[in-house]
Amino acid sequence: GFRARMLVMNSKSVYAVHQDRGKRIHLAIESNDSSFFVFPKDEEVYHIPVDGHLYKVDTSKFHTFFNGHWSETRTHMAFGI
Fold it and tell me: Beta-carbon neighbour count of residue 4 at 10 Å?
């Protein structure tokens, strides 16, 4: 991996639909049952649990993510691959 960064999303937040240059590896540091990746063109929704596992996400596809929890933060470490 390369270019690791922390992605912190406050509660009641959503990110604009976009696509990245490539795939990413995600490690959930903080999450909740109301945080999801959404791939609207594929009609797919994913939750990445805080379980110590790395998850490959094809962020070259159009996607967004949201944290619908009323008070908890969502924090992921993301690595380019």
Answer: 12
